[in-house]
Design a protein that fits this description.
With 168 residues, the protein is an alpha+beta fold. The chain is built from 4 helices and 6 strands; from the N terminus they run H-H-E-H-H-E-E-E-E-E.
């Protein structure tokens, strides 16, 4: 036997002895409880991952979930037609940086879910917006969320006060 093989064998024996000593010092059933706890934690993690992939996005409190809609005519197309005329007439034409910033901020969409206290601050006033309504909201309102992650489905979760009106 070579010296390296002898060292490896002694190390394996040492590890086996340490594991046997640990098992001898553990109360009866402790190893099984440890394995059960690990399996339970793995099950909770798997359930959370499945929920992220298949679950429904739901608003809480006074928040609203909105699915943004792309504008039919983009800002660039509209300004490309009239910008030279406006600039000649003395109007301020937006810079490229301003246009880019506004491209990212869609400001209308469809309500997907209402939190339980959304639009309920005045007490007794009937809801003026409901699930399925098309609304106009503050351009930089809320938080953009992609659900399920990596799917490309984008939503905005915002406060109810960030919604300015309903398109009827």
């Amino acid at each position: 036997m070579s010296e390296n093989q002898d060292l490896a064998k002694r190390f394996d024996n040492m590890v086996e002895r340490e594991e046997a000593e640990q098992d001898a010092n553990l109360p009866p059933g402790a190893r099984d409880r440890e394995e059960a706890a690990i399996n339970a934690a793995q099950a909770v993690f798997d359930a959370a991952r499945n929920l992220m992939a298949t679950g429904m996005l739901q608003a809480v409190g006074y928040r609203v979930v909105v699915k943004p809609i792309q504008a039919i005519l983009t800002l660039e197309e509209a300004q490309a037609e009239v910008a030279p005329t406006l600039a000649e007439a003395g109007f301020e034409v937006k810079s490229e940086a301003e246009r880019k910033r506004e491209e990212h901020g869609e400001n209308h969409g469809v309500i997907i879910h209402l939190g339980p206290t959304a639009f309920d601050r005045l007490g007794g006033v009937p809801l003026w917006a409901d699930v399925g309504d098309t609304v106009v909201y503050s351009r930089y309102a809320g938080t953009a969320v992609e659900h399920p992650p990596g799917s490309g489905n984008k939503y905005q979760i915002m406060n109810d006060e960030d919604i300015f009106g309903k398109i009827i």
